[in-house]
Amino acid sequence: DAKTTQPNSMESNEEEPVHLPCNHSTISGTDYIHWYRQLPSQGPEYVIHGLTSNVNNRMASLAIAEDRKSSTLILHRATLRDAAVYYCIHDNAGNNRKLIWGLGTSLAVNP
Amino acid sequence: NAGVTQTPKFRILKIGQSMTLQCTQDMNHNYMYWYRQDPGMGLKLIYYSVGAGITDKGEVPNGYNVSRSTTEDFPLRLELAAPSQTSVYFCASGTGTTYEQYFGPGTRLTVT
Fold first, then answer.
1. Which has fewest Cβ within 10 Å: A35, A47, A92, B66?
2. Which residues of B touch A39 (CB under 8 A)?
3. Calpha distance A85→A7 (Å, rounded)
4. Which of A99, A100, A103, A105 to mutate to test the interface with B (most CBs of B within 10 A)?
């Protein structure tokens, strides 16, 4: 099964950048890397995804290592609303692209 | 757009009872998913569907059944509820092209 490794928790200060790391050493060449976040008592929310190149959207940036065995989600200016559990997932292209979720990183943002 | 809606929000069941968790999406998505999330854990896929009339098992399908008669609806049926099914249940939908999934607010189920 597709498996990722993330730190259990991280802390940041408001308005500072946050770099959330993820290792996915078993990723295959056609698996996408997805990031979701889950605010307290809510359903997960899509953040960003990529395959090989770095990606940017209105929420965040995704930096993917050249060997694709790791990636980093970058929040450019953390706000209190960004306090959530962040999940790094790679889909399983050989299994109908199902997402296998790990435990994620719990991000605390200090005012 | 309401997105993905789930009912009920909360439910308490006795052991052995049955119930159906409802999920509806108004985005015309072909792909729909049911997950469960136990406390402090990530999500586990129960069942998914790639279109009306097509369903398949995920990681943890035992004790559950699904059907997909329309694009909009994807109900999850629990037969003979057990305490191990106490969890928060999330429904999600997606286009199937980008594999981005949109989640509902969840149903918190307790089986006692």
1. A92
2. none
3. 11
4. A99
